[in-house]
Specification:
The protein is of the alpha+beta class. The chain has one domain. A hairpin with a 5-residue loop joins β1 and β2.
């Protein structure tokens, strides 16, 4: 028996990025903020290779603490 995957249900990096853009658009100018509390969040960035095969390295981060994201509006003084 074969299983089929609904292509619309896959969540990729582009979908998450678009979701974040929409979220910040809605928050901007409303004095809103988003808080995240992390306990031992591990982010493992795999080894990357740049142009001409240049090795860019890898990283492993552990986050313990709070991240606060605030969306603000700024006006420009045009003279």
């Amino acid at each position: 028996m074969s299983q089929t995957v609904d292509e619309n249900s896959k969540e990729g990096p582009n979908q998450w990025a678009e979701l974040m853009v929409q979220l910040f658009d809605r928050l901007t100018g409303k004095e809103a903020e988003i808080s995240y509390d992390f306990q031992n969040l591990q982010i493992d960035l795999p080894k990357a290779v740049g142009p001409k095969g240049q090795e860019l390295g890898s990283a492993k981060w552990t986050i313990n603490g709070r991240l606060v994201i605030t969306a603000e509006t700024h006006t420009k003084n045009l003279k």
